[in-house]
């Protein structure tokens, strides 16, 4: 010091320093906050989705202010939303907000917390917020009024969580969710399907070029699901001593496929991701979900109602809402391959044999209907052929289960222990050939026809059913002349 208490070593007035400090603080408090750009860059290896992007952007151009992206876990909803946000950035110069709603967690972000985050993004964390949600809603709308802001709500739980966050005119909501819901002024949510085979292969090669000519089969085993594709390709990229051919061999077993895909390069593995949806199902819907794994291919609601004992397919519809089941055109439903594997792996105390019997019984009856249509001829025969083409995978699965259940694994001997499940399987072995004789005579290959007939004859013999013992053979030869 210079000897004067009011001056420091640089001969500056202490009072002056305090005034300067206050001016700086006042300036900082009054200075406008920077425009919030919270949405991160999309993945650098993002691949495909050109048609989806074009359709969604067209919806924006037509004036949509709320866009929903829905789909099963791991299908790439967030990645697509980030791509769209990047493409729309110039249209929203007043800010882009990202809110992780954690809709499937035990503690999802509630609307008041979400509105508070948006307000603080524009006003700062020092802003004193009202405790009453109605007052908070007023402030939320005031902050966003006359602004052009894009708000990305990731992983929404339902409409109740999102509806309070609908912003005033000029702003846009982009929402991702597994669950299907609608909001006022919101067009039908865009359903995001799995990747196209070509794009899935390219995606794998971007991550791990040494997959090379194995990309097509690896993509298929991963169900063309982006989460599974990334995990599998990342594993091969990291473990350079893992031979792609050996890895493919491991994935071919459905029993261990989900485990072998792993979680390299992803936050959640496929099994954990699907489980986030599964644990939110009611007990009845979860039961139906597990039972749906009996269908090897797509099916209609009548089949599901009979096989899963789901009156008016109410639980099936709930699974569509949760994006665990896809509703196709022509009123059919489909379970993704990895979802089917997941459903089959869930612990279940119910009798699997009874479920398999109902499935085999239903498609035996479908085959019988096809047979009747063939006998009528002309247009009915054409309708029979169309029905056969649609249901062949399920028909074949039903007959195969009956045969494998009735015949020992050696394939040479029928079990003599006619427990109820075994007896039902033997009857089905016989009935598939007898009740569908005309159809299988026309539509199955000679090798398949002979195999079905031999199995039916053996089953009839063990059942001591003299009426059916030679009936399948007779009808078969009759049908081909």
Can you offer a commentary on this structure?
- Helices cover 55% and strands 6% of the residues.
- The model is unreliable at 1-14, 23-28 and 472-481 (pLDDT under 50).
- The strands form 2 sheets. A 5-stranded parallel beta sheet has the order 2-3-4-1-5, sandwiched between helices.
- The protein has 481 residues and is an alpha/beta fold.
- It is elongated and about 95 Å long.
- The termini are far apart.
- It folds into 5 domains: 1-31, no CATH class; 50-191, Rossmann fold (3-Layer(aba) Sandwich); 197-267; 274-345, Orthogonal Bundle (Arc Repressor Mutant, subunit A); 352-479.
- Helix 14 (301-308) packs antiparallel against helix 17, helix 18 runs antiparallel to helix 19 (420-434) and helix 20 (437-443) crosses helix 23 (471-479).
- The longest helix has 29 residues, at 378-406.
- The chain has helices at residues 14-30, 50-61, 77-88, 111-123, 133-144, 159-162, 197-207, 215-221, 226-238, 244-251, 257-261, 270-278, 283-291, 301-308, 314-321, 337-345, 352-376, 378-406, 420-434, 437-443, 446-462, 466-469, 471-479, and strands at residues 66-70, 96-100, 150-154, 172-177, 190-191, 299-300, 326-327, 332-334.
Number of self-contained structural domains: 5
Estimate the global geometry from the Cα principal axes. Answer: elongated
Query: What is the number of helices?
Result: 23
Helix- and strand-based class? alpha/beta
Give the mean pLDDT.
87
Features:
481 residues; alpha/beta; Rossmann fold; 5 domains; 5-stranded parallel sheet; 3-stranded antiparallel sheet; elongated; disordered N terminus; disordered C terminus
């Amino acid at each position: 010091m210079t000897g004067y208490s009011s001056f420091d070593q640089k001969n500056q007035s202490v009072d002056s320093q305090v005034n300067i400090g206050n001016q700086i603080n006042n300036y900082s408090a009054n200075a406008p906050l920077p425009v919030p750009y919270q949405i991160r860059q999309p993945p650098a290896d993002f691949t495909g989705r050109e048609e989806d992007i074009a359709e969604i952007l067209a919806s924006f151009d037509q004036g949509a202010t709320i866009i929903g992206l829905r789909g099963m876990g791991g299908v790439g909803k967030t990645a697509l939303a980030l791509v769209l946000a990047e493409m729309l950035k110039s249209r929203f110069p007043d800010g882009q907000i990202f809110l992780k709603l954690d809709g499937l967690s035990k503690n999802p972000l509630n609307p008041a917390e979400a509105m508070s985050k948006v307000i603080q993004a524009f006003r700062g964390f020092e802003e004193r917020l009202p405790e009453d949600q109605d007052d908070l809603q007023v402030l939320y709308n005031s902050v966003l009024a006359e602004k052009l802001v894009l708000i990305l709500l990731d992983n929404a739980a339902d409409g109740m969580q999102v509806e309070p966050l609908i912003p005033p005119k000029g702003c846009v909501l982009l929402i991702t969710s597994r669950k299907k819901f609608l909001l006022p002024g919101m067009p039908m949510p865009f359903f995001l399907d799995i990747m196209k085979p070509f794009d899935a292969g390219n995606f794998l090669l971007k991550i791990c070029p040494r997959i090379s000519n194995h990309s097509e089969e690896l993509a298929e085993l991963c169900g063309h699901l982006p989460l599974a594709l990334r995990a599998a390709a990342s594993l091969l990229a990291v473990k350079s001593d893992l031979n792609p051919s050996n890895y493919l061999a491991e994935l071919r077993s459905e029993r261990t496929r989900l485990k072998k895909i792993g979680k390299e390069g992803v936050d959640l593995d496929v099994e954990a991701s699907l489980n986030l949806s599964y644990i939110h199902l009611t007990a009845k819907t979860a039961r139906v979900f597990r039972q749906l794994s009996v269908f090897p291919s797509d099916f209609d609601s009548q089949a599901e109602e009979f096989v899963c004992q789901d009156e008016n397919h109410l639980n099936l519809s709930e699974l569509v809402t949760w994006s665990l089941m896809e509703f196709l055109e022509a009123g059919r439903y489909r379970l993704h391959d990895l979802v089917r594997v997941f459903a089959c792996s869930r612990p279940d105390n119910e009798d699997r044999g009874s479920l398999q019997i109902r499935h085999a019984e239903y498609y035996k009856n479908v085959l019988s209907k096809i047979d009747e249509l063939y006998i009528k001829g002309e247009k009915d025969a054409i309708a029979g052929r169309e029905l056969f083409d649609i249901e062949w995978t399920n028909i074949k699965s039903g007959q195969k289960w009956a045969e494998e259940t009735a015949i020992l694994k050696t394939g040479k001997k029928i079990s003599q222990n006619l427990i109820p499940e075994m007896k039902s399987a033997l009857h089905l072995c016989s009935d598939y050939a007898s009740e569908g004789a005309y159809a299988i005579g026309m539509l199955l290959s000679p090798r398949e026809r002979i195999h079905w007939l031999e199995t039916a004859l053996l089953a009839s013999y063990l059942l001591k059913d003299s009426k059916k013992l030679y009936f399948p053979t007779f009808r078969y030869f009759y049908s081909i002349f």
